[in-house]
Design goal:
With about 160 residues, this protein is α+β, with helices and mostly antiparallel strands. The protein has two domains: about 1-60, no CATH class; about 70-160, Glutaredoxin. It has seven helices and five strands. It has helices spanning about 1-10, 20-30, 35-45, 50-60, 80, 85-95, 140-160, and strands spanning about 70-75, 100-105, 110-115, 125-130, 130-135. A five-stranded mixed sheet has the order 2-3-1-4-5, covered by helices on one side. Helix 1 (about 1-10) packs antiparallel against helix 2. The two termini are about 25 Å apart. The protein binds FE2/S2 (inorganic) cluster. FE2/S2 (inorganic) cluster binds near residues 75, 77, 123 and 125.
């Protein structure tokens, strides 16, 4: 891990002002920000670990824990909230057996809630793997989960066939 980290830092010349791009590169490499990488980064570019965590937790794009293969984000902004987003959230919590902000133990799904996504007229909005789905209902959410499961099975089958 340290070798990869050194390569990333080298790109930015150990410049502390490049902390955000360095963190972006680390996240791109591991798909999250591993604690060991942040500790090593702190030593390598001489930035207090507390400052690194402050930056890493400030930006929602950073994740401090491993993320699922599928990302689900449900808008809980006012317009979506009044159009029954809380019921959809509760349904997904029951179905996935995780709370918002968590990842399923099999690393299949990460689920979080977000504030207004700027497309209120289409609310409630569920974003699945970057794709926006409007006028969300519990039935539609279930359908999206089924499609993601199907996609996952196909991917695993293709991988198994290739081996
Ligand atoms: S409140 Fe959900 S998109 Fe604006």
């Amino acid at each position: 891990m340290k070798k990869k980290l050194k390569e990333i830092i080298k790109k930015y010349g150990s410049n502390r002002s490049f902390l955000v791009p360095i963190l972006q590169d680390i996240q791109r490499e591991y798909d999250y920000l591993p604690r060991e990488a942040l500790n090593a980064l702190s030593q390598l570019i001489d930035i207090p670990i507390s400052h690194i965590y402050t930056v890493a937790t400030f930006y929602k794009a950073f994740s401090l824990s491993p993320r699922g293969r599928h990302q689900l984000s449900l808008c809980m902004g006012t317009a979506c909230h009044v159009r029954k987003a809380p019921q959809i959230r509760d349904h997904l919590v029951r179905k996935l057996q995780i709370e918002p902000g968590e990842t399923t133990p099999d690393l299949e799904y990460s689920f979080n809630t977000v504030n207004c996504l700027g497309v209120c007229a289409l609310g409630p909005i569920l974003v699945a793997d970057g794709e926006y789905h409007g006028q969300m209902t519990i039935t539609k959410a279930d359908k999206i989960l089924k499609e993601l499961e199907k996609k996952e099975r196909t991917t695993k089958k293709v991988a198994a066939d290739e081996n």
